[in-house]
Amino acid sequence: MQKAFLSLFLMCTFCMELSCENPFVTRQPEEPTENSSTFINPTTPDIVFINLQIAATQRNTENYIRSFVDSTRSERRFEFIPDQNIAAIQPGTFLNWNLENERQYLGQAFQATPVDSTIQLSFEERERSENVSTATITQDYRFTFAHSAPENPAEIQGQAIFFLERNETGDWAIYRWDDFKTIDDATSWTELKAFFQ
Predict the structure, then answer these.
(1) Which of 109, 126, 116 is nearest to 61 (CA)?
(2) Residue 145 confidence (pLDDT)
(3) Which helix (H) or strand (E) holds 89?
(4) What is the distance, to the nearest Å, from the Cα of residue 21 to the centroid of all Cα atoms in its chain?
(5) Alpha helix (H) ranges present in 34-80?
(6) What residues contact residue 85 under an 8 Å CB cut-off, 6+ apart?
(7) How far is CA 145 from CA 22, 112, 123, 175, in A?
(8) What is the pLDDT of residue 113?
(9) What SS3 state is found at 63?
(10) How many CA atoms lie less than 13 Å away from 169 in the CB half-sphere?
(11) Domains observed in the chain
(12) Which of 54, 70, 113, 140 has its CA at 20 to 30 Å from residue 120's CA atom?
């Protein structure tokens, strides 16, 4: 009985070895099912703007939103102050603007942009005031993407004053954004938001 059991065990082991190429080699990893994304822990105000640039390039709306104040970790709520001349032409568009509006316009802009086109966002700092818990940074911006809405230019540029705070974990986030149209024949970020809202 024991010899029959031992023979059966050896035969099963031999069959398993034949069917297994090498039991000690790890298998090839599967391709990721989602797009890769990069978000750097925003331990300085500068990293917040790097994260915005990366989120734009990678078309990652959620990482873009992570650059703004989280009301569960702060008493502040995100506030967008549009260019006043544009806001006058678009009455009501920016009334009670919040993070959901930010998510919506950017998602629509990404959807209107062909997958094979490059998106670029750049900032050029003009002025800064910073202490241990808050910062106010004035940036010139240029946001380029070849979306499929011909009535809206594929490049926006202007200036923004960003107000940032540092939370209890040491991370920085934008809690207020004042936008300005600086070139008459250019499209500002205010106009982009209004168009894709």
Answers:
(1) 109
(2) 82
(3) helix 84-89
(4) 43
(5) 45-57, 61-65
(6) 181
(7) 49, 10, 15, 25
(8) 86
(9) helix
(10) 10
(11) 45-196 (3.10.450.50)
(12) 70
